[in-house]
Amino acid sequence: MENSIVSTASFIGAGDFMVSETDPDFMLRHVADIMRAADVTYLNVEGPICDQGEVHAAITGVGIPVRSVPRAAKGLKNAGVDIVSLANNHTMDYGALGLEQTFELLGAQGIAYCGAGRNLVQARRPVSLQVKGLRVSFLSYTSVCLPAYAASRDGHGAAVVRASTSYDVNFRVVMQPGSPLHIRSHANPDDLRMVQEDVRAAKADADVVFVAWHWGVSERHGKVAEYQRELGCAAIDAGADAIVGHHAHMVLGVEFYKQRPIFYSVGNFAFDMSHHYFRPETVVIKCDIECSGLRNFRLLPFMANPARQPCPADERGTQRMAWMLEDLSDGMNTKINCAGREIEISPLTA
Fold this sequence. Notes:
By secondary structure, the protein is of the alpha/beta class. The chain has a single domain, classed as Purple Acid Phosphatase, chain A, domain 2 (4-Layer Sandwich), CATH 3.60.21. It has helices at 24-27, 32-37, 72-78, 95-108, 120-124, 189-203, 226-237, 315-328, and strands at 8-18, 40-45, 83-85, 112-114, 116-117, 127-131, 134-142, 157-158, 163-168, 182-187, 208-214, 242-246, 254-257, 260-263, 268-271, 281-290, 293-304, 310-312, 334-339, 342-347. A hairpin with a 2-residue loop joins strand 19 and strand 20. Helix 6 packs parallel to helix 7. The longest helix has 15 residues, at 189-203. The model has no long low-confidence stretch (mean pLDDT 95).
């Protein structure tokens, strides 16, 4: 999209949000000022926001259903959230009724959403915000999802991008018992083409396109799956300006591809459920939006306190996070620089 207006808007992007018991305003009290100060604030809502609907039969015995309390929508509004992604592995935990209530509650607060809908066309549809003369579009997908949660031609659900997994023998097992298998994973070719079609269409009508992606492996796996790099790069090839990833429940590396960032996982943001593999660290993305793209990428480190509230890291904590990110981003063309209580990131090479 051509835009002759010279303007800059600020962006804040965060990870997974789910508040099932805690007061939402209390949960976000240490970060709300930062979120409200941005022109565009985004996060991922993990599961529906509802008190209606029955637990989806497909998740029984497979996972734990989650949802946020209805007042969470007002809490997000109070914290300055403008847009949320809904495509994740919990989108349909409480069925079509729970998802419908989510749409209603977010709509009542004026919060835009993407990645889920009453059918596949709606789930794939980009959502755009106008700010300071700039048009900023968002798409949202999940690659971790029960098949029954996928939106269909005439059924509620999430925008799903499938991937396949195979395992190759590690021949070192002959001399080294216990050697792990080599894990291979690849995007479904039809779904990859769908993503590129969506991104191109969004970019034709926007200055900047963010793609939110629920993907990868949790359980403290700590590695980026092969298909994630394939899909992230393909989305950027189609015109995406940044990929914001989540699901791992921990921070993962950042890759710069064609000068544009792929944040593989920014971690749990505000999540009031405990689990032994959840990491307390999270990062919030901060950057500038211009008609020519995104600039000045920084990461703001946060740590979950005992009440599971995200709290800003001090300078020593920021330095530790910078070292951790440097290790996680090894081989991903990313330069990490600790600057006080922010972490500056940029591409190593063009």
